[in-house]
Amino acid sequence: MLPHxxxxxxxxxxxxxxxxxxxxxxIVTLLLSAVLMGGxxxxxxxxxxxYTMLLPGALTICCALIVEKDSKLKYHSILAMPxxxxxxxxxxxxxxxxxxxxxxxxxxIGITAGGMILFGNRISIESSLTGSFLIFVTLLWQIPLCLxxxxxxGTYMTILVxxxxxxxxxxxxxxxxxxxxxxxxxxxxxxCPTLHIMPNGLPVQDGSELLSTGVIVPGVIIALIxxxxxxxxxxxxxxxxxxK
Length: 244
Fold this sequence. Notes:
This protein is mainly alpha-helical. The chain is built from ten helices and no strands.
């Protein structure tokens, strides 16, 4: 049943901005880095803008548009379906997760091709692939959160809350000892040893404790726990909400 719900969700995206974001966001990121950074800093600059602002922003907009599509109809189309409400909510989460995976793949292909053809690979393909995978996994938890915020408070508040959370996580927690307590900081912290990029975009100094790979597995586990917990809590909330 869940795959059918996911397919139905994707069909509803056809006349929205969601499919366009898949290719537009990576292109804008790569062009910005090529114009403003270029050379050997093309890949590091692109990755920094990608995981700190542009990808979280696109993900937030995607989640908000998904909810907005149903909220305009006051969820009547959902309530009329002979399917458990939780399954519908899970369909939204996993459809958006598939969207996140796709946009991550598009960015990886773009940044790899740009590095090889135009500027030279400062970051190895293996490290770039690992970094892209970590970005995908550690941002999954934001999907149920953003869907909930969009359903509860609307699009603009969702964008504000999630972007502020990402900025605070990167600026205040990612390079400190308490990074694991603030989920918005996990992605930036794990990319330090993976891509050798500081949260501020500068290269990590040789010998820095930020190069320790021991944070990767715990960070992934923490991020996935957040995803599972938020998925369960928001699905339960959505079921109660629509039962009223």
